[in-house]
Design brief:
This protein has about 500 residues and is an all-alpha fold. Helix content is about 80%, strand content about 0%. The protein folds into three domains: about 170 residues, MFS general substrate transporter like domains (Growth Hormone, Chain: A, Up-down Bundle), CATH 1.20.1250.20; about 55 residues; about 250 residues, MFS general substrate transporter like domains (Growth Hormone, Chain: A, Up-down Bundle).
Length: about 500
């Protein structure tokens, strides 16, 4: 699980330096980020199936080896395609080991108290990694060598490999798995995700091609599920009302990442550099680790479902700390608010895991772990794109309105706002106008109010979207525990 946290917490810090070193474009940078995510989604159901049939210890060790191969490829990459390949190995290995490890926890700890504490501890792992890994990664990048970050990846991969070999019990003899249906299921999931994302980020050709491939994979999956005697893809969770509601809650809860938008606000409003940003977020991640650990005792005291519903609803309410923020808000207020949000968010991670595991029942731990990761990834990918459109759209609209109120003609205000949204420096864009009105001249100064106000408008939109998502997720999770009346 720590391998997943290493990749998530450090790669964004490497990307800009990597782009300058290898010379690829912004569009290519998007490929570096998106292609591995889709590849990981395609593997989730296969990972769960192989863990059940080949053995947990073998698959965790295999995932660690894949992660090490990916770290080596990224660290030595001479070009973008090698980086993408390395990211596929790194992400695929990490997620394989994490899915199997979570299933192993579900198999091993069956008593309610043990189970609650185990899933609470697992929820604390990722924020605990985020305490130190971003600081190390940002420091290495600022020292001028992004390739050294892959050495830190490799150290975690080696630790996971050694731990799996030394601490886990030997596996039973492997059995032959059926992997066609899990692979097709993963391809459909990745295809749906890629189709939605490409409809927003790419042209119609890309969307059409992905949609066609997804349809083919879907037809093949339906045929395979009917013809295979014992399909490796377990869909029992989706076929039950409690399971479908719980997985739906996972999708919605992961649809908007308020922490990512906090990073942007701290960078562009308060001018934090990479290392300073990593350091200032350390207390936030410490609170996240404590929140994850607290989920275990809470589940033991109040039960899985009650704890999950309560902590998820509280996460939604905590996201609304953004509402009173404005131009004069200090950075520490933003950090304190997002720290509270992250703490209660981490506290609901364990209950979500425990709920899905409990619904799957004994013997279904591998499928439950795979489904949890699959629908979590689907929500993060699709929700991230859609939330980004809403948040950045709010910024652009607010900036254009602010400029118009300062006497800038509507057409010029709209054009300037679009340029700033796309990454242009406001002062540079403003200097392109001959005899500009005062509202445009204002953009050449430090922290122009028109932009600062628009940034906080966008951040408030991110908090509102996150709040609505988590409250809806709490409602879906609560619905999963309702007894359906049988027809008379």
């Amino acid at each position: 699980m720590a391998m997943v946290g290493m990749g998530l917490s450090t790669f964004d810090y490497m990307l800009v330096a990597m782009q300058g070193d290898l010379g690829f474009t912004i569009d290519s940078a998007n490929a570096v980020l998106l292609i591995p995510e889709l590849g990981i989604l395609a593997l989730v159901f296969v990972a769960g199936t192989l863990g059940d049939h080949l053995g947990k210890r073998r698959m965790i060790a295999a995932g660690a080896v894949m992660f090490l191969v990916g770290a080596a490829l990224v660290g030595l990459a001479p070009s973008l395609p090698v980086v993408v390949l390395g990211r596929l190995f790194e992400g695929g290995g990490a997620i394989t080991a994490a899915i199997v490890a979570l299933a192993l926890l579900g198999e091993t700890y069956v008593q309610p108290r043990q189970r609650a504490l185990a899933f609470g501890a697992s929820a604390a792992v990722t924020p605990a990694v985020f305490v130190f890994a971003p600081v190390v990664g940002a420091w290495l990048v600022e020292q001028g060598n992004w390739r050294l970050v892959s050495v830190a990846w490799a150290l975690v991969g080696i630790a996971a490999l050694v731990a799996a070999r030394a601490l886990l019990p030997p596996d039973a003899p492997p059995t032959r798995p059926e992997v066609v249906t899990p692979l097709l299921g993963g391809l459909v999931l990745a295809g749906v995700t890629g189709s939605v994302m490409s409809a927003v980020l790419a042209g119609p050709r890309v969307w059409t091609a992905l949609a066609a491939l997804t349809a083919i994979a879907g037809i093949a999956l339906v045929i395979a599920m009917r013809r295979v005697t014992r399909p490796g893809l377990d869909l029992s969770l989706l076929r039950s009302f409690p399971g479908a509601m719980s997985l739906g809650a996972i999708v919605v809860a992961n649809a908007a990442n308020l922490v990512a938008f906090t990073f942007l606000l701290l960078q562009f409003r308060f001018d934090y550099g990479l290392l300073a940003l990593a350091v200032v977020m350390v207390p936030v991640q410490v609170l996240g680790a404590l929140g994850g650990l607290a989920g275990g005792p809470l589940m033991n005291r109040f039960g899985v479902l009650r704890t999950g519903v309560a902590t998820t609803a509280l996460t939604g309410l905590a996201a609304l700390f953004v509402l009173p923020l404005g131009r004069d808000t200090a950075a520490w207020v933003v950090v304190a608010g997002v720290g509270l949000f992250v703490m209660v968010d981490a506290a609901n991670s364990g209950p979500f895991t425990a709920r899905v595991m409990d619904l799957a029942g004994p013997g279904g731990e591998g499928a439950a772990s795979a489904h949890r990761q699959a629908w979590r990834g689907l929500g993060s990918a699709i929700g991230g794109v859609l939330a980004g459109l809403l948040v950045f759209g709010t910024f652009q609209t607010a900036l254009a309105d602010n400029l118009e109120q300062r006497g800038v003609p509507s057409a010029a205000a709209t054009q300037l706002a679009a340029q700033v949204r796309d990454g242009a420096v406001a002062a540079d864009a403003a200097r392109a106008y001959d005899a500009p009105p005062p509202g445009i001249v204002e953009l050449t100064r430090d922290d122009p109010p028109a932009i600062v106000d628009a940034q906080f408008d966008a951040y408030r939109a991110a908090g509102i979207i996150s709040g609505i998502g988590y409250i809806l997720a709490a409602a879906l999770l609560a619905a999963s525990g309702m007894r359906r009346r049988k027809p008379v």
